[in-house]
Fold these 3 entries.
Entry 1:
Amino acid sequence: MEVCKSTDISLREFGCEQNLLSRPDGSASFIQGDTSVLAGMYGPAEVKVSKEIYDRATLEVLIQPKVGLPSVRERSQEQCVRETCEASLLSFLHPRSSLTLILQVVHNDGSLLSCLLNAACMALMDAGLPMSCLFCGVTCAINSDGQIITDPTVAQEKESRAILTFAIDSTDHKVLMSSTQGSFSVYELQQCIAVCQKASEKIFLFYRDSVQRRYSKTL
Amino acid sequence: MKDTPLSNCERDFLLKAIEEKKRLDGRQTYDYRNIKITFGTDYGCCFVDLGKTRVMAQVSCELVAPKETRPNEGILFFNIELSPMASPAFEPGRQSELSVKLNRQLERCFRNSKCIDTESLCVVSGEKVWQIRVDVHTLNHDGNLMDAASIAAITALCHFRRPDVSIQGEEITVYTPEERDPIPLSIYHMPISVSFSFFQQGTYLLVDPCEREERVMDGLLMIAMNKHREICSIQSSGGIMLLKEQVLRCSKIASVKVSEITELISKALENDKKARKAGERCGFAESMPQERITALKMDETPVEMKNVTEKAEDIVKKYEAPPQSVPSPLVPAPGVGQVGQGQQNSWGLEEEDGEKID
C-alpha cells in the first residue's frame, strides 16, 4: 500500500454563463481556467420513429471538437456524458420525445471531460428539464511522485501517470461515471474518489450560487 | 429534429411590414445588426456575434506534401460546420444543401480571390508546404450565416500566427512558440461578404436579413468585396431577376458596409494585440461579461483534504480483493489462444446427432 502524498489541492477559477444562445431551449458556457465548453440543449422535441422509445425520452449527445471532424475520442466522451445524463434525467416524464445535447469544445487546456459534464448539467438546468439530481465532473491526475492534482492543465496531464475523471451526483455524492487512463493502485483510486467528492461540494455550491443569482430578480 | 414551420399569418405580417419599410427589430433597410468580435486564448480563434447569430472560427496549420500541380504553393482548406446547436433543422453528419452552398461561397470568396499569399507558405518546394485549415462552427442561427462566417474567417486568418521555420542547407527546423515567436500570415486584402435579400420579385430589398426575413425572402444576392472597392465574388440565388441598376446600387451599398466592417475588424485586432503585449490574460474567459445576471465567476478555491487518507484506507480495508475469476490463457498451438475450458452442451440433443463439444 503506497502512501499517497497530497499537497494543497485547488480547483482553477471557474465561470459560467447561462442562456447565451437564442435558438436552443437551454444553453450554457462553462469555463475552468482556460478550458472552455459551450453546451446547447434542444428538447423535449419530436423524435424520428426509428429512434423513439415507447416509455421514455431518447437522449442524444453530440460533441464537436474545435478542429476537424468528430472521431473515436469524441464518441467515447459522448458515451460518458450520455450515461451520466441518463442516470440523472427523469426521462420517463417525456415518452416518445427526443432530447439533444450538443457540446462544442471552445478551448482545451486540460480536464476536458469534467468541463463537458459541468457544461452539460448547466445546460440541462437552463432548459428546465426534470432531473432527479444534479451532477458535476471532476478530473484528478496522479503524477510520478504519487501526488494527486485536481483539475490539471494540459501540461500537468502530460507529466502525470494516471488521469481519472469522475461524475459525482449532488444528493449522495456518489460516483455516477468514471473514466480513467493510466495505471494506479486500488488505494490511489479510493483516495482520488474521496478527493473528487470533496471538490464536487465546491462545484455544487457554485451551481447553487449561479442559479440563485439568475433568479434573484424574479423570485 | 424538425424546425417549427413558419405560419401563414407570420409570413403575411412580415411581407406587409416590409412593404411599409418596417423591420421586426426596428432597423432601417440598409442597417446591419450589432457586430461584436472577441478572440480566444490561442492565436487564430475568434468569435463573431452578428446580432444574435453567433459563429466561431479556428485556424490551424500543418506541414503536408503540396499538390502536384502547384508544388511551391501552400494549401488553404475551409470547412463550415452547421452545428446542430445553431438550429434544430441542422442534422449532424448529413451534408445539407445550405452547408454545401456556404462552403462553396466561402471557398470562392477567399481562395479564388487570392487574399492570402500561398507562395510564402512553401517550406521545401515539392515536398513540404503549410496547409492552413479554417474551421468555422456556427453556434446560433439567427440569419445571415454567410456574412458572419466570412467576417469570422478573415479575422481568424489575420489573428493567426504560424510557427517559425528555418532552413539551413538540407536541415529544416520548425520552432515551437516558446523558442521563437510565431509569425503572422501574409494577407493582401480582406474580402467581406454582404448579403441582400429580395422580396416581392425584387421590388423590396433588405440588407443583413434575420432568420424570419430569410424564411420569407424570394432571393439572395451575396457580394464579397474588400475595402479597396474590388469585388471578389458575386452570387445570386433564388432565381429572382435583377436589373443592372439594382446590382450596381447593391455594390455601392456593399462598399460602404465593407469599409465600416473592415474598420471594426482592424480595431478589434489592434485591441487584442495591445492586450497580449501588456501581458493580460486573453480569451473567452476574460471576455465573459461580468455584469450580466446569467453569468457568474468563482476564483481559484482550495479543496479541504482533512479526512481523505483515513477514508480511503477504511474503504480499502473493508472490502476484500476481488476473486481471481478469469483463468490465465493457454496457447495450445501457434496462432490459437484458449481461455478457460469448454463444457458439455446442454441443449438436450439426441446421442446420434449430438457431438461432445470440448
Entry 2:
Amino acid sequence: MAAAVVPALRCSLLQRWPHRCGPGVRAVPGAGAALRPCSSRVAQDGINQPVIDRIIRVDHAGEYGANRIYAGQMAVLGRSSVGPVIQQMWNQEKNHLKKFNELMVAYRVRPTVLLPFWNVAGFVLGAGSALLGKKGAMACTVAVEESISEHYNNQIRTLIEEDPEKYKELLQVIKQFRDEEQEHHDIGLEHDAEATPAYSVLKTAIQLGCKAAIFLSERI
Amino acid sequence: LLVSLAVVRCQQYPPLRTLQASAALRAASDEHKKEPWASSSQQHFESPPAEHQPEEKPQGPHPSYTGQGGQESEDYESEEQLQHRILTAALEFVPEHGWTAEAIAEGAKTLGLSVAAAGLFHSDGSELILHFVSDCNTKLTELLKKEQKLVQLGEAEKKPIDEFLRDAVEARLRMLIPYIEKWPQALSVLLLPRNIPSSLSLLTSMIDDIWHYAGDQSTDFNWYTRRAVLTAIYNTTELVMMQDSSPGFEDTWRFLENRVADAMAMSNTATQVQSTGEAVVQGLMGAAVTVSNAGTCRAVTAEFLLNVSICFPNPNLENNMEKLSSFVT
C-alpha cells in the first residue's frame, strides 16, 4: 500500500502546476466527474515538463544569484590581489547564466518571480562577505559553490532516473557546470577560506540561505 | 500499479455519480446503436495534435472500477473521449439554450445518446465552457503556428509586435462571436471559485502562447510584466466586446488598438526613464571622481612643494609647511 502511495504522491507533487501539460481535457477529482481542460501547449517530444521546468528555473535563478554575488565581491575587492581570481570566476558564471537563458527560452520555462529579490540579496551577500576581507569572500564562495555542486548532483540523479537518453544535452550541461562550480569551490579553499574567523558559522548560515533560495525558486 | 493507484484515488474521491451516469448512458446507447469505441491513443481534439501526452497517464484520477485490467484502461480512454464528443456536439445548441445542461442534452441526442448524458456534467455548464475555451485556445495556437511557418518560409513578412499582439487577440476574440449573446453568462461561470484554477490556467497558457509566437525571449522580470499587461488588455477588450453593438465590433477593435498602443508607449517610457536614471547616475559618479581627483591633485602638488621647500632655507618655512601639510591630508 505504501509502495503504491509513494509514486502517487510523487506524481502529484511533480505535477502541481497543470498549465504546462499538453492539450486535452482530462478528468480530475472534484464533485462529480468534472473535466479539467488544460493548456493548448503541447509537450515537447514527451519530456516531463514539470520536472524540467523546475530544474531550469532553479538553475537559472542560481546562476543569476551567483553572478550578483561575484559582482558584489568585485565591487569591494576588485582592486585587491584576489580581484583577478574573482573576476575569472565571475566570467565563468556569466557564461553559465547565458547558457541557462538559452535553455529557458528553448524549453519555454517561466523564470522565478523572486529574481529582483535575488538581484539585491546576491549583491549584498557578495559585498558583505567581501567586507569581511579576502578570506571572508573566499569563505562565501566556498559555501555557495558547495551548495550548488550538491544541488547539481541531485539534479543529475533526478534526470538519470527519469531518462538519461532523452535528457542527454541537459545532463551534459549540468555536469559541466557542476565541475566548474567544484573548481570554484577548490579555488576558494586554496585562498585560505577556512582561515576566516567564524568560518563554520558563516558557512552554515550561507548554506542555509542557499537551501531556502533553492526551495523557493523551484516553486515560485 | 495502475490498479493500486486507482484504489488510492478511489478512496479519496467519490466516483458514484460517474459510475451511475455512465452505466445509464451505456445502457441507453446500447439500445440505439453500437458506438465504435475508439481505443488507446490519447487523441483529444478534433484537430488532433500529433504529439501524445504520456504525462497524462499517471495523473488522470479515474475514479473507478477496480481490477478490470485492459478493460479498465479502454473504458478510461473512451470515457473522456465520449465526454469530449458530447461537449463538442453541444456547442451547436449553445446560442439557443445557453451554457446549460439543455444544450448538453441536445448535443448528446445528436450523437444518438440518451439525454441522461447531461448527467455526466455539472448543471451550470462549467465543463462545456471550459471545453470551449480550451478548444479556442488550441485553434489560436494552430493559427499562430501556421503564421510562424509562413514567416520562416519567407512567404510572409514578420509583423511588428504591436500588430502581432493586436491580430492574435482579435483572432481569439472573434471566436466568441457566434456565442456572444450567452458569453456574459459563461464569464460568470468561469469566475466561480470551483472553476478558477482551470480558467486561470487556460488564460495564462493562452497569453504565454501569444507572447511566445510574438518572439518574446525575456528571462527576467519582464516575462511577468509582459504577460500581465497582455492579460489586462485581453480581459478589458473581452468586456468591451460584451457591450459592443457597433457593426462588425469595430469599436472593440479600435479599443484593442488603443490599449496595445498604450502598452507600447508605456514600455518605451519605462526604457527612457531607466536610461535617464542611468545617465544621471553616471553623471554623479563622474562628478565624484573629478572632485576626488582634484583633491588628490592638490595633495600631490602640496607634498612636492613641501619637499622642495625643505631643501631651501626659508624664513617662512614654518608657515608654509603648515599651509602645505593641510593640503596633504
Entry 3:
Amino acid sequence: MAGEESKEPLSDSSDECSDQEPTWIYYRDRPEWNDVVPVELNEGPFPVVSIAYSERFKDIFNYFRAIVLKNEISERAFELTSDALELNPANYTVWQYRRTVLKGLEKNIQKELSFVRRIIEDHPKNYQVWHHRRVLVEWSGDPSSELRLTEIVLAQDAKNYHAWQHRQWVLDTFKLFDHELEFVERLLEDDIRNNSAWNQRYFVVKQTSGFSEDIISRELTFSVNSIKKVCNNESAWNYLRGVLAHYTTGLNGHPVVEELCQFLDENNSESPYYFAFLVDRMEELMQSDASKRQVLLPKADGILQVLATKMDPIRREYWLFLSRYLNSQFAN
Amino acid sequence: MSGGGVGGYNSIPSGRIIAADEDVNDMEVKAAEEIEELIAKKETKDQVTSLSLTWSVTCPLLTQPLQRMCSSFMALFLLFLLLIIYHIKQKLKMSERDYSELETNHQFSVLSVPRIHLDVEGIPTVTSDEQVKVESTIEHLLENFLENHELDSTLPLLSRLQIVDFVKHGLSRLSTSYECLDASRTWVCYWNLHSLELLEASIPDETKEAVISFLNLCQSPTGGFGGGPFQYSHLAPTYAAVNALVILQSDVAYKIIDRPNLYHFLMSCRNEDGAFALHVGGEVDVRGTYCAVVVAKLTGIADQKLFSGTSEWILKCQTYEGGFAGTPNQEAHGGYTFCALAALTLLGQESKCNIRCLLRWASNRQMKFEGGFQGRTNKLVDGCYSFWQGALFPLLHFHLAKSDQYSEALDVERWLFNQEALQEYLLVCCQHPFGGLLDKPGRPRDFYHTCYGLSGLSIAQHVNGVVSGRTSVVGSPNNELALTHPVYNLGVNAVMRALNYFNSKPLRT
C-alpha cells in the first residue's frame, strides 16, 4: 500500500552524515568515471517537495541519470546501481535498470539472490525488493531458498504482507504445498489470532484438496475447536463462514456447526461474532422457508437490538440496518 | 453557586472568566515553550504527547501567573475542580447508557459510544498483547480528553493552522531524511495539496505554478509520470500527479498532461487478463488497477481496450472474509479493498462482488475500543485506514441505494459505521502537538497520515445521499472539512471541473 511503500522518515532532522566513511570516493572524483558527464537535477527556481539531498546522494544519482541516458550496460553501471539502492531501495527505476544490466551482462543469479536477500532483511516491507526476488526466481526457475526466506521474515513479523504474497506465489508456481498445512498449523499454535495464517490455511486447502465434503468437515472441526478455546477471535469465525460458503445448506444443518451452537448456548456465550452468526443463520432459514418467518424474525431482531445497544454498540448503524433489512424482507 | 450540570457555569461572574482566558493564552505560550525545551532535551514522544494534552489541566496548578491572581479567583478555581470531578463522574456514567435516545447530527461533546476492551479470554498471544498495549495508550488519552473537555466543551479541536503550516512547509522543502521518498515526490505533492484542499487553505498562485512545472518535469516523454524527474513512469506517482493537477483546478494544470502518451503508458502496464502492473517490468496488484482506472477516467481516455477483463480480475481478489486482497488468494486488506471497490465502481461493476460479505468485513474493521479502523482482521488501528476503510462506506451506500433489495433499509443520514467514534479517534489520538496527523499515539507525524487522516475525517463528517444528507461534526464547528469524493479522494468541485474539461475533449489517438 502507498503507506508501506512510502514509509516516511522517523524524524525531520538530518541523519548523521554518512559521507565520512574513510573509503568512500565521490564518483565525480573517480578517474575511471571521467568520461561520464553527471546529470544534475534542475527543478527551477521555486522548490517543490524539494529534498535536501546529501552530497553523496546527489553524486550517485547524478551519475545514475547519466548512465541511464546513455543506456550503458557495464560492470561499473551495475556497481553504481548497488550504491544507489543502498541510499534508496524504493527507487524502482534503479531496480528496473539493474535488471536490464543483469540480463545484459548475464550475471550470476545466485549472487544476486544473496544481494537482494540482504536488502529484504533490512527493508522487509518494501515492494521493489520482493518483486526483484520474484523476477530472479522466475529467471532461475529455482525456488529452493524461498520458503526458508519467507519463513525467516515471518518469524520476525508473522503478518508481513509481502512475505506472504511471495510465499503464496512460490507455493503455487512450483507446487510446493507438501508441508504448508503443517507450517500454517505451527503459526496458529504460536498465535491463534494470526489472520494471515488463517488466510494461508484457506489458500492451501483451496489449492490442494479443495473443499470437498470430507475436507469441509475437517476444516469446520478445526475452526470450531479453535472457537471453543477463544470465542472472540474473528479470524476463526471468518474462516468458519468461509468454509461454510462451500457447503450446500449454508450456515444451517452441518452437524459440526449445530454442535458448536449448542455448546455456545449451553455456555451462555456472549460473543458478538456468535450472535451475528445466529442472525445470519436465521436469515437463511427465513429465506428458504416462509413459514419460519413469523417465529424467527422477532428473534433475529431481538439479537440485533442487543448487539446495537449492549454487545457491540460501535457497529450500531450496521446492526440497525440489518434489522430494517430483515423486516423489509420478511415481515408480513 | 449551583453545583449541577453545565448550567452551573453561568453563575460565575464573566469578568473573572475573561481574565482567566487571557492568562490561559499566556499559559499556552509558556506550555508550548516548555514542550519545545523538552524536545530539545530529547524526552520521549509519549511524554510530549500526553503533556500537550494535559497541559490545560496541569498548567493552572503549576505556573506562576496563577499565583499572582487574586485569592477569590483561587476559590472559584477550587470550585471549578469540584465541578470537574463531578462532571467526569457524570460523563463516565453517561458513556455506559443506551444511546438510542440521542440525536445523531450534532457535535458530540463526550465519547459517542461506550468503549469495550478486548477480552483476552485467558489466552494471550502476540496479537492480543499488541492490541492490549494500544488500548491502554488510547484509554489514557481518552481519559485526559474527558478531563480537558470539562474546561473546554468545544474540544476536541482540529489544529488547522498548525496542520496548514506543516503541510505548506512540506510542499516546498523536505529534510534529508526524505531521501527514502525520492521516488514518491509526486505523492508528497498530492498528499499536501489534498490536505490543504480539505482544510480550505488557499494555495498561492506561485505555488500552483511551481507545482505544475515540477509535475511536468516528472512526466515521461513516453507517457505517465515518475516519482521525480528522470524516473521511469509508474502508475502510483502517475495517479498522484494527475490528482495533484486536478486539485489545482486550472486549465493550465490540465493541459500539461500528455494524454495520448498517457494512454500508451497505461496500455504498456496492462496484462492480457486485464490486471495492471505498477510499471513496465513491475509488480501486479490491485493498486495498479485502481491507479490506471482513475487516471483514465479523470482524463477522459478510458476505453474498452484498456479495461476489458479488468473488473473480472478485480473480483478474483475478493477473499472468503469479504474484503479484497492485493492479488487473488492473499489476505483481505483495507488499502486494497478501497482500490478494488473504487475501481469496480468506476467501471460500473461493483454489483458483481459479494456486497453483503464486503459490508460485514468493512463494518468489523472499526475498532470497538479505539474507534478508528484497522487494516486487516486482528491487526492494529491506524489513522490512515480512516480513509481506506472509511471511504468504503459511501461507496457501499451508493451501491446499496441502487438495489431494490437494500435501499429501503438504508438510513440516508448515516454511513454504516460509527462516524463520531472515528472522528474522536482522529482528533483526540492522532494529532501531533505541532500539527499534522499520525498512525497512532507514539508514532511520528507525516504527510501521508495527515492526508488520509483528514480525508477520513471529512468522510466521517459528511453523509451525502442522492437526495439528502447530514453533517455531523465532532468538537468545534471549525473542525468541519471540505467534502472529499470517495472514489478519487479529491475535492468534489475539483473532480467535477476536471471531468467537465477532459470529457469535452475526446482523445484522438
